[in-house]
Amino acid sequence: MHTYSLRVVRTRDVRRIPLARMELKAEEEEVGGVQPVSIQAFASSSTLHGLAHIFSYERLSLKRALWALCFLGSLALLLCVCTERVQYYFNYHHVTKLDEVAASQLTFPAVTLCNLNEFRFSQVSKNDLYHAGELLALLNNRYEIPDTQMADEKQLEILQDKANFRSFKPKPFNMREFYDRAGHDIRDMLLSCQFRGEVCSAEDFKVVSESPGMGRESARALEEEETRCRQPSHPSRYSGRGSCVSLG
């Protein structure tokens, strides 16, 4: 009986040894973690077109080189198109649409006339030249004519005669009166005028000027009287329904 009992115990111990070894192997696999997938395995399972043909288990061949070239070319083209579209977006291109609406009545616009010569030289008197010659850039601070070689011969002769202040007694000078007298007049500039098919003249305009002495430009803002803004019997022959002002 004792011998039989000892054999049973030994048999149980022998059976426990393989089970312990299996548990140790499982623990070692858990500690080691999952093995990384090779790039060939990733490419074969990827849905990206052409990647499986580039990274394959085959040896390097012309087929793999052509697939790699096509893949890189397609990728470069995609990046170029995306870059061009992003740049196009940040340029903020826009389309402007204009709708023309016919108006039954048009308001006469304000017309501003700016001349290169601020004042009419023919209207500048000797007294004006004495008081405002330096302001008009016709004389210097010593009442002398600067840059005579650049002036017109005829105008230079007139200017020399007006700039001769020997035995000259100056009179009071008013800047507003000088602006009104020496400034440009609409009667000298307006050749013809039509608005809404009606003929207008210089009497239909009024002058809007700024205060003198404030460095204003020689400009006349002209606007037609409201009494002239009536519906025409026929459109203007120049623009259909607009205004036409001819200046000389």
Automatic annotation (TrEMBL):
Keyword ATP-binding present in the record's keywords: the answer is: no
Q: What is its main location?
A: membrane
* Entry keyword annotation includes Membrane: yes
Where does the sequence pass through the membrane?
65-83
Q: Name one molecular function that GO assigns to this entry.
A: ligand-gated sodium channel activity
Query: Topology with regard to the membrane?
Result: Multi-pass membrane protein
Where it sits in the cell: the answer is: Membrane
Q: Which GO terms describe its cellular component?
A: plasma membrane
Q: Which residues form the signal peptide?
A: none
Keywords on this record? Disulfide bond, Ion channel, Ion transport, Membrane, Sodium, Sodium channel, Sodium transport, Transmembrane, Transmembrane helix, Transport
Q: List the residue ranges of the region (Disordered).
A: 211-248
As for family, the record states: Belongs to the amiloride-sensitive sodium channel (TC 1.A.6) family.
Q: What is this protein called?
A: Acid sensing ion channel subunit 1
